[in-house]
Design brief:
Blueprint lengths: L3 H9 L7 H7 L4 E5 L2 E4 L4 E4 L2 H4 L8 H13 L12 H13 L4 E7 L2 H18 L7 E5 L8 H6 L3 H4 L9 E4 L4 H4 L5 H19 L4 E6 L15 H11 L3 E5 L13 H4 L6 E4 L11 E6 H7 L16 H16 L2 H17 L8 E7 L2 E6 L14 H12 L2 E2 L1 E3 L2 E4 L7 H21 L4
Parallel strand pairs: 3-13, 5-6, 5-7, 7-8, 8-9
Antiparallel strand pairs: 1-2, 2-3, 4-10, 9-10, 11-12, 12-15, 14-15
The structure holds pyridoxal-5'-phosphate.
Pyridoxal-5'-phosphate binds next to α6.
Length: 451
């Protein structure tokens, strides 16, 4: 007999990215509190949150300073908009703070409610840019297979997820996709470096095919997140940079996951030495305590879309929401004053990556990879042939369920298990994460009679 709460959830709650019929049959976990890097189910079961929620709780759970920032702002001014020749203190201060940590050539921020609508903003702003430049034919976006840029119509079109495109007749016109730098699955006989070059060169081939005069922008994540923490070969970004320098197209770097310290730099554009025209932000911006996103804009783009002196007819009721902005500002101030990003770079991420590599020796792991505070493993039945555990990525779900049983939140992206823990995780907690991941791999291997 399902509890009254479970029945209520089944009756009324349509949950995102879920088979809701299956949820109704199997029931659902109720998460009721959290502290540090741990979350708790209402029945008291404790989990180490290896995913920082959904890649977002960078500062960890339970920070009272963020609660106070929200409460103070809500008392003073819970809401006002930015449309009527008005601003609010948190919106302006947050924009200035983000500009201060962003790459030097980027000094303006447009606020949104999420990463998806930030990429919708990019979509319109980039097209507006080319209209104002007198090149209205430059309207096509180039993205990559297996990219994730959000779930709205434009953002899902920019993304390269087939299972999303097949629902809702996406992508919309004006978006084309090129190869991803996913060496493990697509590298064939090529070395990592050779494959990195080849994947990057698919961008140049596409530019030549569609015509430079028709291309608006290239959009990419520094490393693919939801695609399975796909970290590109060392040759990939330098070759992309060479191609971008050669053609007159804009470059949108989607840092919704990688921003705000996840690589050990404030932005992955520094980690990979990229020079984007716009950076998409959300998630770690507020450590997920309240929803907020935005686009950081280079001087080059701002000079045109602002410098021309006409209205940009775009914005959201909750653009720069003062309570969300106050929380994001406090979050960034804490990441700064506590030296959390430096700590990630100097100590925590090297330790996480070193221990994560131990998983590569496990019989069902085809590859262990990662950078900064993200990492993933490829689940296989056979290390040499790379044959998967089961058809239709069923092995990933089996492994995810064992992980939950073992008190560790890991996410499955198909046959890939991924982690993205809070940046404040300690070495002892990393040890616990690795021990639980090893047990989970053993349990999964045993389930498939492989050990
Ligand atoms: C999560 C994500 C988005 C979408 O952000 P939402 O806040 O869920 O709309 C966009 N891009 C990347 C890289 C993401 O990981």
């Amino acid at each position: 007999m399902k509890s009254e709460f479970q029945q209520k959830n089944t009756a009324h709650h349509f949950q995102p990215f879920s088979d809701n019929k299956e949820l109704a049959e199997k029931g659902i976990k109720l998460i009721s509190k959290a502290e540090g890097v741990y979350i708790y189910e209402d029945n008291g079961k404790k989990y180490l949150d290896g995913m920082a929620g959904l890649w977002c709780v960078n500062i960890g759970y339970g920070r009272k300073e963020l609660v106070e920032a929200a409460s103070q702002q809500m008392t003073e001014l819970p809401y006002y908009n930015l449309f009527f020749k008005t601003t609010t203190e948190p919106a302006t201060e947050l924009a200035a703070k983000i500009a201060s940590i962003a790459p030097a050539h980027m000094n303006k921020v447009f606020f949104t409610g999420s990463g998806s609508d930030a990429n919708d903003t990019n979509f319109r702003m980039v097209r507006r840019y080319w209209d104002l430049k007198g090149k209205p034919s430059k309207k096509t976006f180039i993205s990559r297979q297996n990219a994730y840029h959000g779930s709205t119509v434009a953002a899902a079109s920019l993304g390269g997820m087939g299972y999303m495109h097949e629902q809702g007749d996406l992508p919309i016109d004006g978006v084309v996709h090129v190869d991803q730098p996913y060496w493990f699955a697509e590298g064939g006989d090529l070395s990592k470096d050779e494959f990195g070059l080849k994947a990057a060169q698919s961008l140049e081939a596409k530019i030549l095919e569609v015509g430079e005069e028709n291309i608006a922008a290239f959009i990419a994540e520094p490393f693919q997140g939801a695609g399975g923490v796909i970290t590109p070969p060392d040759t990939y970004w330098p070759e992309i940079k060479r191609i971008l320098a050669k053609y007159d197209i804009l470059f949108i770097l989607d840092e919704v996951i990688s921003g705000f310290g996840r690589t050990g730099e404030w932005f992955a554009s520094e980690y990979f030495d990229l020079k984007p025209d716009m950076i998409t932000i959300a998630k770690g911006m507020s450590s997920g305590y309240l929803p907020i996103g935005g686009v950081i804009i280079s001087d080059k783009v701002a000079d045109v879309v602002i410098g021309e002196g006409a209205d940009f007819n775009h914005g959201y009721t909750y653009s720069g929401h003062p309570v969300a902005a106050a929380v994001a500002l406090k979050n960034i101030e804490l990441l700064e004053s506590e030296g959390i990003v430096e700590q990630v770079k100097a100590e925590i991420s090297p330790y996480l990556q070193q221990r994560w590599q131990e998983l590569a020796d496990h019989p069902i792991v085809g590859e262990a990879r990662g950078l900064g505070m993200v990492a993933s493993i490829e689940l296989v039945k056979d290390k040499t042939t790379k044959e998967r555990l089961a058809p239709n990525a069923a092995g990933g779900n089996v492994c995810r369920d064992y992980s939950m049983d073992n008190g560790l939140i890991m996410r499955s992206c198909g046959d890939i298990m991924v982690i993205s823990p809070p940046l404040v995780i300690s070495k002892t907690e990393i040890d616990e994460l690795i021990e639980k991941a090893k047990k989970t791999l053993d349990d999964t291997a045993r389930f498939y009679n492989l050990i």
